[in-house]
Amino acid sequence: MSALQIKKGSSKHSAYNLRPNFSDVIEKHTLAVIVDNEAGVLARVIGLFGARGYNIDSLTVAEIDHAGHRSRITICTTGTPQVIEQIKAQLGRIVPVHEVHDLTVEGPSVERELALIKVQGDGEKRVEALRLADIFRANAVDSTLTSFVFEITGTPEKIDAFADLMRPLGLVEVARTGVAALSRGL
């Protein structure tokens, strides 16, 4: 290959192109972060996102090891591959962080969310809300003469679809837990 061919050719042959090839496409990633269960850790993790202008789409936290004082933070975020890599690297540098897993790239995972959805209506709208709840396998956990509170679990997309269908039927309020996720298999 001549010098001219290298100069005009792909930049992947250049000694100056040391960065990996990243895309500018915005991607959604689910991160599982194992941390010490102590005061201030969640604030530090969230502070990392806020200080750098990264967005958190969903956040759940719960203790997973009472004896070892460990908690699991599940974070859904979006960004370019470069931003996601920066987030993971910076999370890994926080002292009480033990593990950072990107469930999106590590293989198949299971994601679920719980939502409570309040719908107000009467007559045909009430009947239609109950019919749709049955189709989506949502449970009526509270009922009055004019409203229902439905409990639904599933993927965030399933919950979005159910809420969208309830809007014209009298959607009043939605409370969501955020995503809980685990990788599949061993």
What do you see in this structure?
- The strands form two sheets. Strands 5, 6, 7, 8 and 9 form a five-stranded antiparallel beta sheet that branches. This protein has a four-stranded antiparallel beta sheet with strand order 2-3-1-4, covered by helices on one side.
- Strand 6 (139-143) and strand 7 form a beta hairpin.
- Helix 4 (124-135) runs antiparallel to helix 5.
- The protein is elongated, with a radius of gyration of 22 Å.
- It is an alpha+beta fold and 186 residues long.
- Helix content is 31%, strand content 38%.
- It has two domains: 23-102, ACT domain (Alpha-Beta Plaits, 2-Layer Sandwich), CATH 3.30.70; 109-183, ACT-like. Chain A, domain 2 (Alpha-Beta Plaits), CATH 3.30.70.
- The protein has helices at 3-8, 41-52, 81-93, 124-135, 156-170; strands spanning 27-36, 56-65, 70-79, 97-102, 109-120, 139-143, 147-154, 171-176, 180-183.
- Catalyzes the conversion of 2 pyruvate molecules into acetolactate in the first common step of the biosynthetic pathway of the branched-amino acids such as leucine, isoleucine, and valine.
- It catalyses: 2 pyruvate + H(+) = (2S)-2-acetolactate + CO2.
- Pfam families: ACT_AHAS_ss, ALS_ss_C.
Shape: elongated
Q: Which stretches are poorly predicted, pLDDT < 50 over at least 5 residues?
A: 1-14
Domain count, please report it.
2
Sheet of most strands: 5 strands, antiparallel
Beta-sheet strand percentage?
A: 35-45%
Radius of gyration, in angstroms, nearest whole number: 22 Å
Overall structural class, as computed from helix and strand content, comes to: alpha+beta
Termini gap: 47 Å
**At CATH's second level, what is the architecture of the largest domain?**
2-Layer Sandwich
| CATH classification, class level of the largest domain | Alpha Beta
What's the helical proportion of residues? 25-40%
H-E order: HEHEEHEEHEEHEE
